[in-house]
Design a protein that fits this description.
TPR repeats lie at residues 53-86, 95-128, 176-209, 216-249. Keywords: TPR repeat. It is a single chain. With 282 residues, this protein is an all-alpha fold. It is built from 14 helices and no strands. The chain has helices at 2-25, 29-46, 49-65, 69-81, 87-107, 111-127, 131-147, 152-169, 172-188, 192-209, 212-228, 232-249, 254-266, 270-280. The longest helix is centred in the first third of the chain and has 24 residues, at 2-25. The N and C termini lie far apart (58 Å).
């Protein structure tokens, strides 16, 4: 009887992780954190070491997205420290955590350390033939080469590798992210029509899978490119949609507000421009 209860609780803990991931994918980060904290509590009570480790890993990721970096690292480390997980699952867990730790180091400006973690994660995922995690590592290496190291050719090559895997596996959420990242590289290279092509592909995916966070980001980036091309009416329409979505989901919107300020200034509406620019710097 006790064993049956423990098994049911363990399955309940796994379902909580799934709910947490679903909320994460839809940009509902605070709900994601709540589900994952409950999952962690359940798995600790049942002694499910695997569930406990993955709860720490997933919880750390959601905390990272809401800028609670120290807490994220704490959970990542706890995931690695849990004993009793061996073989393929241990490698899969380590690969995911190394990717996540790489992101923290990247954010903190430790670029060499970030690349080391990303390549370590890539080596593990290649060894165990986990293509989903390979794509994550390729994506992260693309991001750091673009955003931090200025190596745009290398960035594009990594992002294309990630996209190829994600399209083939029909991992739609991640595919949308890859389109967005590739658009960003083309924008940085001054290839604005190519940038629009990939941002619009990402926007279509984000609408299809109802990923509001990615949808808002795409409207923002498309609006920026239209402004650079001198198509201010289209730019304004896209930034207004970005602001609407980001406000709905409670996401950081200073960049969008600043873009709206610039666009209103270009239209000669200085009162609106000043209001947006003041809001952006608060």
């Amino acid at each position: 009887m006790e064993q049956a209860i423990r098994q049911n609780l363990t399955m309940f803990g796994h379902s909580l992780i799934e709910h947490g991931l679903e909320c994460y994918n839809f940009g509902q980060l605070h709900k994601s954190i709540q589900y994952l904290e409950k999952a962690l509590f359940v798995h600790k009570q049942t002694g499910c070491r695997s569930g406990e480790a993955w709860s720490h890993c997933r919880l750390g990721r959601s905390l990272f997205i809401v800028c609670q970096y120290d807490k994220a690292v704490e959970h990542y480390q706890k995931a690695l420290d849990i004993r009793g997980i061996t073989g393929h699952e241990r490698q899969r867990l380590e690969g995911r955590v190394y990717n996540n730790l790489g992101e923290v180091h990247q954010l903190r400006g430790n670029h060499d350390e970030a690349c080391r973690y990303y390549k370590k994660a890539l080596g593990i995922s290649e060894e165990i033939k986990n293509e989903i995690e390979q794509a994550v590592s390729y994506n992260n290496l693309g991001v750091i080469n673009h955003n931090c190291l200025g190596k745009l050719d290398e960035a594009l090559a990594y992002h294309m590798k990630a996209l190829e895997i994600r399209k083939r596996l029909r991992y739609r959420n991640a595919e949308g992210t890859s389109y967005n990242n590739i658009g960003g590289v083309y924008e940085a290279r001054g290839q604005y029509e190519k940038a629009l092509e990939y941002y619009k592909k990402s926007l279509a995916v984000s609408k299809e899978i109802k990923d509001r966070r990615l949808e808002g980001n795409n409207f923002y980036f498309i609006g920026k490119v239209y402004r650079v091309l001198g198509q201010n009416k289209k730019a304004l329409e896209h930034q207004e949609r970005a602001l609407e979505i980001k406000s709905e989901i409670g996401e950081f919107k200073a960049g969008v507000v600043a873009e709206l300020g610039i666009l209103h200034m270009a239209h000669g509406d200085y009162e609106k421009a000043l209001g947006h620019l003041n809001e952006a710097i608060k």
